Amino acid sequence: MTQLYVAVIGSGDATAEEMATAEEVGGLLAQEGVVVISGGLGGVMAASCKGATAQGGQTVGLLPGRDRSEGNDYLTVSLPTGLGELRNGLVVNSADGIISIGGGWGTLSEIGLAMRTGKPLVLIRSWQIGSPQDPGQILRTAETAGEAVQTILAQISR
Questions:
Q1: Are the C-beta atoms of residues 78 and 71 closer than 8 Å to each other?
Q2: pTM reported for the whole predicted model
Q3: Which structural domain range is residue 82 located in?
Q4: Looking at the DSSP assignment, which residues form a beta bridge with residue 123?
C-alpha cells in the first residue's frame, strides 16, 4: 500500500477544544501509518503534530517563512517555503486528504483550495460554506476525531 498523507488544518489561535481534537486526530492518523502534514506553526498545526509524534508517527510542516526554526517542536520534517500564506496551496496539494478543525481565514483558503482541486475533505466544527454553482454540494462533517479519521481514510484509501 502506498504511504498516505493527510493535512490537518486549522487556526494557529485554536481553542482548547480544537487543540484537544487536533491532537487526537494526529494520534489516530499516526496509528494508521499516515503522515501528518500541516502549516508547521502553532495551534491546531502543533497539536496534530504532537498527537502524531506521541504515537511514533511522522509529521511534515510547510512553513510560511524562510526560517526552519519557526516550526513547532513536533515536526519530523520542517520545510521553510518563504511563501507566506501562499504556502496553503502546498499544504493542500501535498496531501491525499484534509481534515479541518475550527479555523480562521487561512483555513478557509485551504478549504477552498481543497474543494477546487477535488481533494477529500472532512470538517470538524469548521467553516460551513456552500457553492453558488452547486447548492446541493454537501461538505463532509464529523463530530469526533475518530469519525473524521475514519471518514478521510475511507475516501483516500479507495
A1: yes
A2: 0.95
A3: 5-156
A4: 100, 141
The CATH number covering residue 98 comes to: 3.40.50.450
- DSSP 3-state helix, strand, coil percentages of the chain (rounded to 5)? 40, 20, 40
Q: How many angstroms from the chain centroid is the CA of residue 12?
A: 12
Tens digit of each residue's pLDDT (9 = 90 or more) over 111-136: 999 999 989 999 999 988 877 777 66
Q: How many domains would you assign to the chain?
A: 1
pLDDT < 50 positions in the chain: none
- For residues 32 and 71, what is the distance between their CA atoms, to the nearest angstrom? 24
pLDDT at 1: 57
Cα–Cα distance between 30 and 8 in angstroms, integer? 12
Residue 105 — φ and ψ, nearest 5°? -65, -40
In this prediction, residue 61 carries a pLDDT of 98
